[in-house]
Amino acid sequence: MRTFALAVAAALALWTAPAGAAERIVAVPPPADDQPLRPAAAAETLVLAGGCFWGVQAVFQHVAGVTRAVSGYAGGSEATAGYESVSTGRTGHAEAVAVTFDPGAVGLGTLLRIFFSVVHDPTQTDGQGADIGPQYRSAIFVRDAGQRRLAERYIAQLDGSGLFGRPLATRIEPFQAFYAAEGYHQDFASRHPDHPYIAAVDRPKVEALRRLFPELYREVPALVGEKAP
């Protein structure tokens, strides 16, 4: 397993592209057929991949109604669900985040709207900014027919709007399993706010959430905590 120091060094090495390569912030409309809030319903989970999981986790931890956001791996087998293996880009895994939420407080469509607006650039294939490889792909790992239907229709809606100027590259993949990442990856943005990668890439995403979705932004993030999931 790669040590914490080596993981940080690898992330810093990746972030060498010019500023123009950073992900874009695009305010998108809500899904045309969004689901209504469902008070008293059981918690639900949405698994999303959109580049380095540090930033994806950080954004959703600041969304009101999200009770837990865990960084991890989805799309591959348990045998290769580790940072060193996934970083090769040959495992089928994507760096992903399992977002658990209260459907009475925030809807699935709203979470997808945030995903497409501020979390990442959904038009970039197999990468985000200078983070290149299929492990950084844009993907929604759908858990049931309802999630698939909403995701498919929303992507078609956004493609038809022309807001991004090119087609979305987001893949809709069937959810098979989610494997939590190593403990040192959890809550990374909150524990290392001055890390160069966090300051350059991920802090602007959280700020964009606060600016574009003030009614959904909460100042205190829902952290995983010191114990690895």
Describe the structure.
The chain has 229 residues and is an alpha+beta fold. The chain has helices at residues 4-14, 53-61, 83-86, 108-119, 145-161, 188-191, 196-212, and strands at residues 44-50, 66-74, 94-101, 127-128, 131-132, 138-142, 171-174, 178-180. It has one domain: 2-Layer Sandwich (Peptide Methionine Sulfoxide Reductase, Chain A), CATH 3.30.1060. 32% of the residues lie in helices and 17% in strands. It has a six-stranded mixed beta sheet with strand order 7-6-1-3-2-8. Strands 4-5 form a two-stranded antiparallel ribbon.
Question: What is the helix/strand order?
Answer: HEHEHEHEEEHEEHH
Number of strands: 8
Spans of at least 5 consecutive residues with low confidence: 1-22
Class per helix and strand makeup = alpha+beta
The H-level CATH homologous superfamily, spelled out, is Peptide methionine sulphoxide reductase MsrA
- Average residue-wise pLDDT: 90
Strand and helix layout:
Blueprint: H1 4-14, E1 44-50, H2 53-61, E2 66-74, H3 83-86, E3 94-101, H4 108-119, E4 127-128, E5 131-132, E6 138-142, H5 145-161, E7 171-174, E8 178-180, H6 188-191, H7 196-212
Parallel strand pairs: 6-7
Antiparallel strand pairs: 1-3, 1-6, 2-3, 2-8, 4-5
In short:
This protein is α+β, with helices and mostly antiparallel strands and 229 residues long.
Q: Which keywords apply here?
A:
disordered N terminus; single chain; globular; alpha+beta; six-stranded mixed sheet; 229 residues; two-stranded antiparallel ribbon; 32% helix; Peptide Methionine Sulfoxide Reductase, Chain A
